[in-house]
Amino acid sequence: MGKLFIVPTPIGNLEDMTFRAIKVLKEVDLILAEDTRTSGKLLKHFEIATHMHSHHMHNEHKTVENLVKRLQAGETIALISDAGTPAISDPGFLLTRACVENGIAVECLPGATAFVPALVNSGLPNDKFVFEGFLPDKKGRQTRFLALQEEYRTMIFYVSPHKLNKTLAEFVQYFGADRPVSVSRELSKLHEETVRGTAEEVLKHFEVKPAKGEIVVVVGGKSLK
Do strands 180-185 and 193-198 pair parallel, antiparallel, or not at all (unpaired)? Predict the structure, then answer.
């Protein structure tokens, strides 16, 4: 029986790649990559010559069965995404679940993920928090916001740059203008920035200075007072 390795990759700064991640990627029989072009640059930088196959949200349903057979036959496979830890708002859950159901060993390496530094940077309570990932685009979006109005834990969202102002305006609408918000963008990269304030203050900031890059938004929960 083979083994599936879940391998985090840097979210921006290549120095965040771990020695162990490099070792695993060099030793496995196959690497599954979300985008082989993006991952190809990473592998080249670390002189990793292991063969890659594409594994993304559009084909993962079709490829899982064959990958399970390869693992059952004794192959070792590593799964990586474009950045961060696979299966966190990225492909990986379906294959991991299939391996668990078929008694195939799964080992997830510790490593980079965007929401942890954003949460710690925010200064908001982090003893209890809920990871929401990407909100629904249309269907179910309002329903989700209405449910989150009663959430007392700190909330974490992934937001694309062109939807940031709309999302911040919705925070004002559903959570109130004074709800504390922290927006972290381009974490670990040259132009890393964290903007903190009330929902209204942060919205005004980005209306004047539109955001670019990868974004994580952390929102304080409803006050229990």
Answer: antiparallel
